[in-house]
Amino acid sequence: MKIGIFGSGIVGQTLATKLDKLGHEVMMSTRNAADLYQRKPAFKTWHEDHPAIRLGNVNEAAAYGHLLINALQGLSTLQALKTIEAQHLNGKIMLDIANPLDFSNGFPPTLSVCNTDSLGEQIQRAYPDLKVVKSLNTMNANLMTDPRELPHDQTVFLSGNDEAAKTQIKELLASFGWKLTEMFDLGDITTARGTEQLLPIWVRIYSKVGHPKFNFRMVGI
Length: 221
Hints:
single chain
């Protein structure tokens, strides 16, 4: 499958690496590849190790992908999506893993939207013909693509209005190593408020234990 990834940070790179390994055709978005190579030599080295992964701007990645993944910083997501021609989004599924974290006052971050709204809902309202599925946003990137790094079962949440879209995302998660019994469908896109609001506790756990190799697990259901 052709997959367009918005964002070229560690999360985007981790997802792109896994998808490339699984045989998908991947394009990752970046504003300026040459500038990125110069500013971040580690990215250049990573891309040289994965030459099949294409680079383009956000509009090109949206046009390329049959499935889209939003791995942008939450606060920049809506602005970036405005640069995409509508026909490149309409009717497509977008796995949204971004969180509206605001670091303007330092660490730990706050949420720029919460309680009565979510980033997932904002994207869905702005692009009603896009099938947004919120998932994988409550864990570290390595666990997103390799859940078996942990010795115990864990939970990955899904939120979205389109049942067929959620089914396709579940198939993608299964290819990453997630068990069907670990996938918890919360319901429509408004339930993304709950998973995005897990991030404040996630960052505090991270601060306490000093590493990101942990996840949430539903028990007693």
